[in-house]
Here is the input.
Amino acid sequence: MKEKQMIKSPLGGYNLKTSSLRELAWQVAPNLLISFRYAWAGVSYAFVTQRNFRIHAAIATIAISLGLILRITPVEMAIVTLTSALVMVLELLNTALESVVDLTVGQSYHELAKIAKDCAAGAVLISALAALLVASFILLPPLFSLIFQLGTF
Ligand SMILES: Nc1ncnc2c1ncn2[C@@H]1O[C@H](COP(=O)(O)OP(=O)(O)OP(=O)(O)O)[C@@H](O)[C@H]1O
Here is the structure.
């Protein structure tokens, strides 16, 4: 049975809190499998429509494969995986935010829409730069030593 609670907000007014269903949602996933399917639909949408997401996915695949080939330690592997995933996660959030902004303001110019989109793009940029640095620190030394070893044969 659905339970509703009216919570007094500190800024005045009330927030409607429901224990199980979100009443304002057009549809709520009835089970975990369908939830997963919606999440996968989001990832597929980003992959098909966002060139940057495809680039990040390709770079992440290369970085993780290199890590396996170079036999870096499990902790290093975890760091490379996490930083690569972070870039893709932020790209997904950037795509979500762009959609919400476009839904709100349509094709009209709004200074706040610009701030929202620019900041979301900035978050992706910073995570990509950090991932590049992390990959350089972890992958380049063993890669260079492998190339050096191959060169000496
Ligand atoms: N409605 C708007 N009002 C004001 N500025 C906007 C608006 N829509 C987009 N812009 C500006 O145009 C830029 C590009 O918008 P767009 O929606 O293509 O985002 P993007 O980050 O370039 O997309 P992608 O991540 O797909 O490359 C934004 O970063 C923002 O500066």
User: Anything to note?
Assistant: The chain has one domain: 32-152.
